[in-house]
Amino acid sequence: MALQIAAFEEEDWMSLYEAFLSAFSNYFVRFAPSKEDFEKRIFHKLYIDGPLSRLAWEDGQVAGFLLHTHGPYRGKSTLYNGGTGVVPAFQRQNIATRLYENLLHHLSAAPAIQQIVLEVVDQNQAGLKFYEQLDFKYTQSFKCFKLTTPVEERLLEGINFHTPSNWASYDELFSIQPAFLDTSDHLTHNKANEHIIEATHNDQVVGAVIFQPHLGRISQLVVDEAWRARGIGRQLCARAQKVSKGKPLTLMNVTEDAYDTIEALEAIGFVNEVNQFELELII
C-alpha cells in the first residue's frame, strides 16, 4: 500500500506513541516516555494542533510524523514543531520531506501563520542539514541543564515560600525570554501538570519556579533582579526537588549568552549536558 499522509486525529495517539518510541530509539538523548507521560506531553505540554500536524501511514502503521502546536512567539503567529521523526524501517524514503511538503502546501492557504520554529540538538547533524535544505535559518543557541545533586532546603530571613492559590504569570521578572514551549502564553495549556512555588517578601513576589513534578522538568525559574545572589533561586530548586520526590531537575533552552543566569545555575549545581539550536522558517 502506498504511503499516505494525513492530519493527526486524537484516536491516532497510540499508533503515534509506538512510532515515536521507535523513531527516537537511537537518538542522541535518551527519550522514552511512558504512555502516560507521552499523553501529557502531546495533549497538554505541546497542546498538539491536529489539523496542522501530519502522520505518514503505510500498511496501517505510522511511518513518520510531524507534530505541531501554534501560538504567539516573539511577536509573530507561530507554528511550533514539537517533534519530527521517521521509524527506522522507513528511513531513506524522503518521508520527512514529504511530510513538510504536504504541510507547507496546506499553510499556503493559511496566511495567519507567519513562521515555523523548532529546536534541534547540536549533535544532530543530519537533522540540521535537513532543516537547512528546507530553508530554515538559525536564530538562537540554547544550553540545557540538569541537576542531580540534592540541594539543602533552608529558611531565608524575610522570605516566604508557598504555592499560590491561582495560576500566575511572572513575565515581569524575566531577564531572558523563554523558548516557545515555556512561554507564559503556552504554559496555560499545561496547568494541570505544572506546579508553582513562589518566593515572597512582604507579600511581594521576588521569585518563582514553575515545573512538572512527574518529570522534574522546570518550565520557568525566575528571581527579581533586585533580589538575586541571596539564595532564592537555590531554595526554589530545593523545594522543587522535594515536590518532585528527588527526581533530577532539568531546565531547557537557556540562551548561550545569558551569562549571569548560567553562572547562577552552575553555582546551584546544574550541569550543561546538551545544547540546541533554535531555527525558524518564515512563511
Which SSEs are present, and which pair or pack?
Blueprint: E1 4-7, H1 13-23, H2 35-45, E2 54-58, E3 61-73, E4 76-86, H3 95-107, E5 115-121, H4 125-133, E6 137-147, E7 160-162, H5 184-187, E8 195-201, E9 204-212, E10 217-223, H6 232-243, E11 249-255, H7 259-268, E12 271-282
Parallel strand pairs: 4-5, 10-11
Antiparallel strand pairs: 1-2, 2-3, 3-4, 5-12, 6-11, 6-12, 7-8, 8-9, 9-10
What does this structure look like?
This is Ribosomal protein S18 acetylase RimI-like enzyme. One of its GO terms (molecular function) is acyltransferase activity, transferring groups other than amino-acyl groups. Residues 3-157, 159-283 form the N-acetyltransferase domain. The chain is of the alpha+beta class. It folds into 2 domains: 4-113, 3-Layer(aba) Sandwich (Aminopeptidase); 145-275, 3-Layer(aba) Sandwich (Aminopeptidase), CATH 3.40.630. It contains 7 helices and 12 strands. The chain has helices at 13-23, 35-45, 95-107, 125-133, 184-187, 232-243, 259-268; strands at 4-7, 54-58, 61-73, 76-86, 115-121, 137-147, 160-162, 195-201, 204-212, 217-223, 249-255, 271-282. It has a 12-stranded mixed β-sheet with strand order 1-2-3-4-5-12-6-11-10-9-8-7, sandwiched between helices. It is elongated. The model has no long low-confidence stretch (mean pLDDT 95).
